[in-house]
Amino acid sequence: LEPIFGRGALPREQARFKRVDEDFRSIMSDVQRDSRVTSLSSRAGIRSSLVTLLDQLQRCQKSLNEFLEEKRSAFPRFYFIGDDDLLEILGQATNPIVIQSHLKKLFAGISSVDFDEDFQHITAIKSL
C-alpha cells in the first residue's frame, strides 16, 4: 500500500496512513523486544492505541475502496481483476513487467507483449 499512499495518489489519506504505519511499527517493535502478552498489556494506553489504529485503518480502507472504484470507472476493464491485482498494477504502474503479468485477466486472448529495448513501446502482442 505504500506506493499508493506514499506517492500521493490519496493525498488526504497520506498523512493518516503514515501515522498508522509508524504507530503500528512502534507497537511491533515492543512486541519484538518482548513477545510475552503480559509485557504488552503493561504498555500504557495499548488498548486505546489499538482501537484508534483500527479506526484509522478503516478510514484508509474506505478511501482506498473509493479510489479503486474511481480507477475502475475510468477504465472498465479493471472490473475484471480483484483489488489486490489492481493495487499491484497501480502501485507498479511504471514497471511494464508487473503490468504484463495481469494482461491475461484484462484482455481476452492476449498472453503477453514484447517491448523495445527501453520498455517504452510495445513491439508485439502475443496471443494464447
Radius of gyration: 20 Å
Tally of contiguous helical segments: 7
As a percent range, the share of strand residues is 5-15%
| Biggest β-sheet description | 2 strands, antiparallel
Tally of strands: 2
Q: Report mean pLDDT, rounded to a whole number.
A: 88
The termini sit apart by: 32 Å
Helix content: 55-70%
What structural class do the secondary elements suggest? Answer: mainly alpha
Which blocks of ≥5 consecutive residues have pLDDT under 50?
none
Give a brief description.
The protein has 128 residues and is mainly α. The chain has helices spanning 2-6, 11-33, 37-41, 46-74, 83-91, 96-100, 103-106; strands at residues 110-115, 122-127. Strand 1 and strand 2 (122-127) form a beta hairpin.
Describe the model.
- This protein has 128 residues and is mainly alpha-helical.
- The longest helix is centred in the middle third of the chain and has 29 residues, at 46-74.
- Helices cover 62% and strands 9% of the residues.
- It has helices at 2-6, 11-33, 37-41, 46-74, 83-91, 96-100, 103-106; strands spanning 110-115, 122-127.
- Strands 1-2 form a two-stranded antiparallel sheet.
- Helix 2 (11-33) packs across helix 4.
- It has seven helices and two strands.
Q: What keyword list fits this structure?
A:
single chain; 128 residues; mainly alpha; two-stranded antiparallel ribbon; 7 helices; elongated
SSE inventory with pairings:
Layout: H1 2-6, H2 11-33, H3 37-41, H4 46-74, H5 83-91, H6 96-100, H7 103-106, E1 110-115, E2 122-127
Antiparallel strand pairs: 1-2
